Amino acid sequence: MFKTASALALFGLLAAQPAPARAESSEVVYATPKIVLASFFPKSERVTYRTLPLDARAKARLAHRLGYTPARDSYTVFVAMTQGKVDGYAVIDDELGLHQPITFATRLTSRGVVDRVEIMVYREPRGDEVRDPRFRKQFEGKSAADPLRIDRDIDAVSGATVSSASLATGVRRAAILIEELGLETSAPSTVAVTKIPVQTPARVATGAQFALRSSTASTARP
User: Fold this and answer.
1) CA distance 32 to 182
2) Distance between CA 154 and CA 196 in Å, rounded?
3) pLDDT confidence of residue 206
4) Rounded to two decimals, what is the model's pTM?
5) Are the C-beta atoms of residues 197 and 102 closer than 8 Å to each other?
6) Are 123 and 23 spatial neighbours (Cβ–Cβ below 8 Å)?
7) Could you report the per-residue pLDDT of 16-50, keeping only the tens digit for each?
8) Rounded to whole angstroms, how far apart are CA atoms 49 and 3?
């Protein structure tokens, strides 16, 4: 069952969500949770969150659909609302790249369709070309029904095969989480946070140009 946030709890959660401490000099923080949520839902009246605890039954159900057991014991889903109706959902999560986790955010419509993906923190020395809009745009319109297979449903970035596959795995998980555990049209019993303020990240980096990798290429880098 959902646990709905209070306003103070939501601010605490935003502070606790990754942007993780720097472990290596290659780590770059592109956006904080507050920035991402404000960008995802600029017209929504309020954004709240709900914690989805995974008991053994829920984990088994997710494992059946995902093809692997989720690493977390709970997930957080952000819910944007206006006049009592759900505008959309967001999931902030990590997925392992070649050596380091990639922190990313997925925005989904009220029907659970992916309509935006953002890279929040990238930690590998190479492969951040997955930030390019042309790669991320491929996820738009996808749902939990789509397998998101690299080089079949999603074209990998040339020279960033592992990171491309990681994002595909993570976005698919977000869509399935919303469908299995979070999708509903009714308003949460408690709402929180009106107009999340937009702040400028302390460190911003721009992604390099890239080319989509053909299915015959074999390069495998982060």
Assistant:
1) 23
2) 32
3) 33
4) 0.76
5) no
6) yes
7) 555 444 444 489 999 999 999 999 999 999 999 99
8) 8
